[in-house]
């Protein structure tokens, strides 16, 4: 799969050829026309030409095992192939059109003549090549660090999953063991008659089926009602200790009145104390069970999100990728209303899930920043002709009109200094283009919508 690296500012500002210099070079070469995905050259053959981009974008990447790492993107006036031409060796890189492009090809013999006849071009070439080599070395070092971090993350995910699964099993067994111990203690508690023990055990079974989930206001009202009833019964000391646990388990005043008739007022406090302790034990075990399950769910989502332990897939389930991304960003979306609208029977798209998940992460993360922890984000997926469309819409303040034409430019950001790098939407643009797709933005106060359209069938998918 291709893993785009963040172009440094120095690389983005790399010196290119002027329009006049490019025009001077045109008679020395032949023009090539490339569609998105077409290779200019790869690491399998000797590069015997110097290439100048006339129009479009050419991505430079390197294959490391099964993973392709994108290093640079060359645009109009920039060049590639120079180092291989000088050394006469095969290239260690591959060059591929990101968008429909026009490229001037100058063979190695002619290029040497150009260096003599147009010296200012030679100056640009030498200084640009030196800068590019420094950038490439930095990119490799960064890639090595990321690769090491990826291995660490894979090991950590594996190590987390095993104890989380064990904790979940232990919590379930602990719940059952605690309940058995409480029931056994009740059977031997001589304070209660057999009928009273049966009444308490019956109420315990009723509450173990799962309480009705109440909103905070309704739960507070239920606690007040129970506490007041217990106080009226003369249980002032225990009333407000018992009320929260009983209310959370769904026990109401009417049910306690029935229990009081069976136990009598004298034993009611003891019986409710036993019941509350039993509910606390099972409730704590359930909390551990749910929390351990949450860890397992997050690890599973992370594996799906990064396509860990799997080769690069040929087809991607867009909805699955979006759901995994929403899970990963759950901590940031806590106060946000997320509305999902997924069309049924959506086809998969060709490509690389890990790259597309970077797209969904950047779009949803930006939307979360826009609504600032409140408001609404809508994620919609549907078929649009021969494409699958993904829309991420937020009801934030919108993008200023003067900024809309620049949001996909590298290093452009509307966030405060230090809050954003300005690379997120540049990555979105490059990854989507590498999959043969397109991305658009529309924004007004109260609604900003990013739309990504990906082909259902794509001849070339960036790797």
Q: Which regions contain 5 or more consecutive residues with pLDDT less than 50? A: 1-13, 417-422, 458-463
Number of helices: 13
Oligomer: single chain
Shape: elongated
Strand order of the largest sheet: 1-6-5-8-3
- Major sheet characteristics: 5 strands, mixed
> Would you list the SSEs in sequence order as H and E?
EHHEEEEEEHEEHHHHHHHEHEEHEEHEE
Distance between the termini: 6 Å
The CATH homologous superfamily of the largest domain = Histidine kinase-like ATPase, C-terminal domain
Beta percentage is 15-25%
Determine the fraction of residues in helical runs and give it as a percent range: 40-55%
**What is the number of domains?**
3
Q: For the residues shown, what is the average pLDDT?
A: 79
CATH domain fold name of the largest domain: Heat Shock Protein 90
Main CATH class of the largest domain: Alpha Beta
Strand tally is: 16
Helices and strands, with pairings:
Blueprint (H helix, E strand, L loop, with lengths): L1 E3 L4 H4 L6 H7 L4 E5 L4 E3 L7 E7 L2 E7 L2 E8 L4 E2 L1 H6 L6 E4 L3 E7 H10 L1 H69 L6 H15 L7 H17 L3 H13 L4 H11 L1 H42 L8 E2 L1 H11 L8 E6 L6 E2 L2 H19 L4 E9 L2 E8 L29 H11 L3 E7 L2 E9 L8
Helix pairs in contact: 4-5, 5-10, 6-10, 7-8, 8-10, 9-10, 10-11, 11-12, 12-13
């Amino acid at each position: 799969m291709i893993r785009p690296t963040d172009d440094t500012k120095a690389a983005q500002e790399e010196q290119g050829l002027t329009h006049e210099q490019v025009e001077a070079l045109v008679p020395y070469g032949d023009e090539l026309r490339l569609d998105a995905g077409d290779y200019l050259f790869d690491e399998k053959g000797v590069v015997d030409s110097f290439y100048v981009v006339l129009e479009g974008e050419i991505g430079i990447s390197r294959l490391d095992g099964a993973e392709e790492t994108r290093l640079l993107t060359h645009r109009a006036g920039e060049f590639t192939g120079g180092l291989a031409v000088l050394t006469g060796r095969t290239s260690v890189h591959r060059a591929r059109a990101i968008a429909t492009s026009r490229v001037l090809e100058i063979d190695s013999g002619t290029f040497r003549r150009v260096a003599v006849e147009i010296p200012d071009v030679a100056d640009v070439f030498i200084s640009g090549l030196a800068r590019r080599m420094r950038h490439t070395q930095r990119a490799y070092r960064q890639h090595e660090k990321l690769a090491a971090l990826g291995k660490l993350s894979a090991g950590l995910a594996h190590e987390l999953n095993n104890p989380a699964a064990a904790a979940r099993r232990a919590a379930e067994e602990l719940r059952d063991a605690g309940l058995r111990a409480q029931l056994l203690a009740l059977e031997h508690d001589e304070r209660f008659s057999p009928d009273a023990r049966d009444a308490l055990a019956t109420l315990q079974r009723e509450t173990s089926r799962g309480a009705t989930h109440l909103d905070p206001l309704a739960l507070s009202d239920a606690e007040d009602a129970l506490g007041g009833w217990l106080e009226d019964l003369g249980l002032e000391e225990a009333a407000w200790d018992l009320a929260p646990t009983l209310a959370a388990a769904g026990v109401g005043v009417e049910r306690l009145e029935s229990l009081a008739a069976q136990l009598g007022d004298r034993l009611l406090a003891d019986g409710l104390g036993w019941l509350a302790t039993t509910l606390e034990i099972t409730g704590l075990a359930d909390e551990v069970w749910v929390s351990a399950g949450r860890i397992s769910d997050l690890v599973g989502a992370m594996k799906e999100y990064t396509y860990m332990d799997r080769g690069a897939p040929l087809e991607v389930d867009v909805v699955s990728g979006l759901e995994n991304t929403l899970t990963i960003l759950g901590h940031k979306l806590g106060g946000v209303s997320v509305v999902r609208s997924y069309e049924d029977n959506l086809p998969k798209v060709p490509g690389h899930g890990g790259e597309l998940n970077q797209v969904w992460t950047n779009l949803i993360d930006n939307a979360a920043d826009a609504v600032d922890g409140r408001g609404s984000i809508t994620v919609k997926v549907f078929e649009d002709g021969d494409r699958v469309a993904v829309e991420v819409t937020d009801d934030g303040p919108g993008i200023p009109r003067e900024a809309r034409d620049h949001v996909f430019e590298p290093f452009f950001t509307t966030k405060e200094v230090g809050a954003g790098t300005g690379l997120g939407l540049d990555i979105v643009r490059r990854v989507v283009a590498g999959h043969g797709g397109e991305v658009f933005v529309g924004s007004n106060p109260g609604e900003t919508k990013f739309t990504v359209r990906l082909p259902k069938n794509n001849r070339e998918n960036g790797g």
